[in-house]
Design a protein that fits this description.
Elements lengths: L12 E5 L4 E4 L23 E4 L4 E5 L19
Antiparallel strand pairs: 1-4, 2-3
Pfam families: zf-CDGSH
GO cellular component, one term: cytoplasm
Protein name: Iron-binding zinc finger CDGSH type domain-containing protein
Length: 80
Amino acid sequence: MTDTPDVPQKAPYKVELEAGKTYFWCACGKSQKQPFCDGSHKGTTFAPMKFTAEDSKTAFLCGCKHSAKSPFCDGSHKAL
């Protein structure tokens, strides 16, 4: 078992968020519904990150799973 997430892509996911809606961002990198959780983390040390959108807007969610500002992209993918 590893504590390092899979890297599904070395770029952020552009998504439309809806104000007040709760989302579960995939932290393990195994989900087939990136960037959101589909339960693929079961049996690992990872858990999805729950967050609620404050505003309806376009957002860039981390695709490399290494952002210090998860679930949002901070450019960490550029160093991978």
